[in-house]
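Tutorial handout. Part one gives the primary structure; part two gives the three-dimensional structure as tokens.
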Amino acid sequence: MATATSQAQELITCDLCAKPVQQFCNSCQVGLCEDCINKHVKSLKSMKHDIVPFTKRTVQLVFPQCTSHSHQRCEAHCQQCDVPVCIKCLTGQHKGHVFEDMDKTVALKRQKIKEETGEIEGIILKATTQDSDTENKISKSIAQFTDLQKQTKDQRKQWHLEVDNIFNKLESLIQSLRNHQITTLKSSQSKLRSQNSSMIKTVQENKEILKSNKVSGVNNYQSKLKEYRNIPQIPDLSLPSLQTNTVLGRELSIELGEYKATLTQTSLSSLTDLSVKELLEEARLIANIPTNVKNLLKVACVGSDKAWVSGTDKMISCVDIHGAVKDTVTSLCNRFPNDIAVTRQGKLIYSDGPNRTVNIVRDGQTETLITIPRDWLPSGLCCTRSGDILVSMKNTDLIHYKIVRYQGQRVTQEIDKDEHGDPIYQGGEYGVYVVENNNGDIVASDRNAFKVVVVDRTGKVRFRYNDKPPGGERSFGPTHIVTDSMGHIIVTDCQNDCLHILDQNGQFLRCVDNCGLEDPYGLSVDSEGKLWVGLFFSGEMKVIKYMK
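Part two.
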């Protein structure tokens, strides 16, 4: 401790120079070294100085020097003038004024300073608390506005999805109306041309009879005039027009015939969907087509009156709605195609599991379109509206399934796990069939899990469906799956010999079980919205109308 005290004293220096302090003037309250004692005393000759060793100093008030009288200190305070005064002031210009000792004035002011200091410290504590509270509020505000920005971005995406859905449906509807109208007009034109050709031939024959002298030609003449007078009428079809309406700041609407979509500013729920076509109370069988395909597995429609079909051999055939074979392709598969589909340009593609390829047929020639990575085998196929190709594939040990999006040869998306890291699709020996819906959802028939699995365009699971049909005795057995222009999801149920029709949110709407669907497997939808269903064992194909 002695050493520490000695070191501490060495740090104290003279108030007049930088040398160590040794003495202390109690009168003036200044520390002095030996050399500065005389200098200090001489500078204030008129004042009495009490010089003592520094260790015996007495700390006391240091009164201020009087501004009116040199070498005098103010030991009192004039209350009338509110200024410090010395003894000479009290007998001079402040004579007769009320005064008090400086000690008392200082004590009172010190008390006031102490009280104010305590109050200021309280204010500082309060301000510090408020500052902390404000910091918390700033943090909460930043977090809240960050969340609002995220919500806004999410809402923007959702609104865009809804608007895209509206216009995707409009495009599908326009294409459907176009195909229907052109088909109707061409059919009438074909009948007209056929009759015209027949009439030209009849005129030529009649002229030959008139030129001939043979009586038999005249006697055998059969009049066709009555038949020819009924000229096939070309229907006067009205052309649809797109109607739009904007109520500034409140509502946007668009109409095509009886279909209407409205966007209002009040809330997201005000964005209504296109009026859907009504489902028929009971589906109607339009055609029953014998395909002669052994174990009919796959169906892929081309336009409104043809479809490619394949079974358990290498052949892929194109048949029309009357059963006539229009084209055949011998696939390069070792056994049979795992799936078939048609591109937006009308080209046939098929997947070849053992050879790990997706192939395309152009002008009768087969080319490799996609080569699947080693240890993976392609299964289901879907050609999207954007021109991408969705391929479902399983690894060679049959444990994992995933859906991969290709742009040409380039992989742009893989869908295999949910947000918890769990597999979305169940492994197993059966294929997973895949299709894209109007709203961008990717819809899959997972036969191994006996479920329909729907994910959004980012790969996030929206819902799963595996209900038995009303009155069904056996569990749900999904095989092929399609979506239509209204966003309906239709899936074959080979366990219950029927079709399930769902809305795009997985709500069950109808069961089609009245059209002789025995062991339905392959499924496709044509450009007019008719369903083409392939029956596995019989090889027949049913064409079904299910919407008004």
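Part three, for discussion. The mean pLDDT is 87. The longest strand covers residues 279-290.
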